[in-house]
Design a protein that fits this description.
Blueprint lengths: L5 H26 L2 H22 L8 H29 L1 H5 L5 H13 L5 H25 L4 H27 L5 H20 L6 H5 L4 H28 L2 H8 L2 H12 L6 H18 L1
Length: 294
């Protein structure tokens, strides 16, 4: 596989790992609370990244500015940003909120141009257009199905996307300053930033992590852990591997296909044939991704 294609496959793998987990996150955000779900999944990721950080690999201590950017990225993106996203998930469901990731390629395209001198070649622009069109088709289906946008919840979700975007920019800034830092190390520092944020939150809002977890049966707890490993640990590792070496706007344009994958999974779980909208959206995604690869 050519090296320049790796970021796109990393981003696609991250998207697949994240998409199915969002359905679980949405359910438990409604059953328990968005804050509890966010703290739980971040704690799982922090534990796994921490164990890997302590016992495996050749770690390089980052420069002070890099460390601060990673910690701040974790606080803004994982603690605050994901909290807002999960609050929107609880109201609208995962697939509808994930449509808002359509704004991220534009945000990261501007940031990549201003901060990292990343231009957008014509073929990447065409690919982004196909992927955004995929999102647009999927949004049309949701509008037809539900008949309204739920503007308050969508605004909350947009805040979450914006904070996540800022976290990605800070992460790329840290990688630029310290190229020797690995995605695993970066994720550990970001998880530390998120946990520090939750400690601050706990002074104002009772988190009750263990007490709430005990309310669920064994199957539900297992599902929570597996979804957290997939949607937080695995997806973050793959996504930051892409962010480290790839073109920010293009990587995020692959990320906006999350509602497509979530919709396909929902069709499978509900044992319904995919709608025409979903088929068209998948074809647009395939065209965009093939343009990136070839």
């Amino acid at each position: 596989m050519q090296k320049e294609l790796l970021p796109y496959f990393f981003a696609l793998g991250a998207n697949l790992a994240f998409s199915w987990a969002t359905i679980v996150f949405a359910h438990f955000s409604k059953t328990a609370s968005a804050l509890w779900m966010n703290v739980f999944k971040a704690t799982i990721a922090f534990t796994v990244f921490g164990l890997i950080f302590l016992f495996f690999g050749d770690h390089h201590w980052p420069e002070q500015t890099t460390l601060i950017s990673f910690l701040l990225s974790g606080f803004l993106g994982l603690a605050l940003g994901d909290w807002f996203l999960l609050k929107a998930f609880a109201t609208l469901g995962a697939s509808r909120v994930l449509m808002l990731y359509g704004f991220q390629p534009l945000m990261l395209g501007v940031a990549g141009y201003l901060l990292f001198h990343q231009s957008v070649p014509l073929e990447k622009l065409v690919a982004i257009i196909f992927l955004v069109a995929c999102l647009f088709v999927f949004s049309l289906e949701n509008l037809r199905k539900y008949g309204q946008w739920h503007l308050k919840a969508l605004f909350i979700g947009l805040i979450g996307i914006s904070l996540d975007t800022l976290g990605v920019v800070l992460t790329r800034y840290g990688f630029e300053n310290s190229p020797s830092i690995t995605p695993l190390d970066c994720n550990f520092y970001r998880a530390c930033g998120a946990i520090a944020g939750f400690v601050v939150f706990s002074f104002f809002v009772p988190l009750r992590i263990h007490q709430t977890l005990l309310k669920f049966d064994r199957k539900q707890r297992a599902l929570l852990i597996i979804a957290s490993l997939s949607g937080t640990f695995l997806s973050l590792y793959l996504y930051l591997s892409a962010v480290r070496i790839g073109h920010l706007a293009t990587i995020s344009s692959i990320g906006i296909t999350a509602p497509l994958f979530a919709g396909i999974l929902e069709s499978f779980v509900q044992r319904k044939l995919p709608s025409l909208y979903l088929v068209i959206a998948f074809l647009l995604f395939a065209c965009g991704f093939l343009i990136l690869v070839y």
